[in-house]
Write a structure and sequence with these properties.
Number of domains: 2
Distance between the termini: 65 Å
Largest sheet: none
Radius of gyration: 21 Å
Number of strands: 0
Order of helices and strands: HHHHHHH
Oligomer: single chain
Helix content: 55-70%
Number of helices: 7
Strand content: under 5%
Structural class: mainly alpha
Shape: extended
Low-confidence stretches: none
């Protein structure tokens, strides 16, 4: 053990013990059955997709997102809200399924951006690239309210 650790006050060791205890409970609690994990994953996919795309102005509810995603493989959407939902949902599902193989890098971020906008016709020119102009979301939201 490092000599610096030997000199830690008891209060710090108690906090470390609490963290370790919590970690043990967290890992133990993660032993859910496959059906429960699958339902939890689906819930996270739908709620995250809905919330994230609503930030950008989408008007789809979580129920609408879930319904939309059930027919995802067989459709190509023309509505921008649905296109954004489709890209976000598929990207998040891919991250869930392959997170252990992902290595954080600039190219990965650009790839995620490309996948996120894969189905959005309007964003075809800047998929997977840095933003080159101001985002107009806040201006549009202001105009829509007035």
């Amino acid at each position: 053990m490092d000599n610096r650790l030997k000199n830690l006050p008891d209060s710090i060791w108690q906090k470390i013990a609490l963290i370790d205890e919590f970690k043990g409970r967290w890992v133990g609690g993660a032993q859910l059955n496959l059906q429960a994990l699958s339902r939890l994953k689906q819930f996270v996919l739908v709620t995250s997709t809905g919330a994230s795309t609503r930030i950008e102005g989408s008007r789809l509810s979580d129920k609408e997102v879930e319904k939309l995603m059930k027919g995802l493989a067989i459709q190509r959407f023309s509505d921008r809200d649905k296109q954004e939902v489709q890209g976000y949902y598929k990207l998040l599902a891919n991250v869930f399924n392959s997170w252990e193989d992902l290595h954080f890098s600039e190219s990965l971020i650009k790839h995620f951006h490309s996948e996120l906008l894969k189905y959005v016709d309007k964003d075809q020119l800047h998929r997977g690239e840095y933003k080159k102009q101001e985002n107009m979301v806040t201006c549009l939201m202001f105009l829509m309210k007035n």
